[in-house]
Automatic annotation (TrEMBL):
It holds the Pfam family Gp-FAR-1. Keywords: Coiled coil, Lipid-binding, Secreted, Signal. It comes from Meloidogyne hispanica. Belongs to the fatty-acid and retinol-binding protein (FARBP) family. Signal peptide: none annotated. This is Fatty-acid and retinol-binding protein 1. One of its GO terms (cellular component) is extracellular region. Gene3D superfamilies: 1.20.120.1100. It is found in: Secreted. GO terms for molecular function: lipid binding.
């Protein structure tokens, strides 16, 4: 219940081949300079999966664009931090670092204005509920 229903639907509709392709692309994430590069790599392997992933990406980007400026900056910062925490191929996630970042996210959320918090609640209610 943490993620938007569209994300759950996307994941639940993946075939075993889709999951394999996503894993292959994800394992090479350090080779892609941008999200576009990663999507293009996905497109080379599966046009259908690329289309579905791009639709999901656009949905999330649309929700982010609806945030007020303070909330948008907060989300953009979180996204960049999470990208930086992605483990390299054959490495496991650093749980200590993940916990530290999660605590920092909660503290930064608490420091937001009420207007920014409401903007986040409106556009990302489930995630906001967990952070609170």
């Amino acid at each position: 219940d943490l993620v938007p229903p569209e994300v759950t639907t996307f994941y639940n509709e993946l075939t075993e081949d889709d999951k394999k392709i996503l894993k292959e692309v994800a394992e090479k994430h350090s080779e892609y300079a941008t999200d576009e590069d990663a999507l293009n790599a996905l497109k080379e392997k599966s046009e259908k999966l690329y289309t579905k992933a791009n639709e999901l990406r656009n949905l999330v980007k649309d929700r982010i664009s609806k945030l007020n400026p303070e909330a948008k900056t907060f989300v953009d910062t979180i996204i960049e931090k999470l990208k930086a925490l992605r483990p390299k191929k054959d490495e496991k996630p650093n749980l200590t670092e993940l916990r530290k970042e999660a605590n920092e996210i909660v503290e930064k959320f608490k420091a937001l204005s009420e207007e920014a918090k409401e903007s986040l609640k409106t556009n990302f209610p489930k995630i906001t509920g967990v952070i609170q």
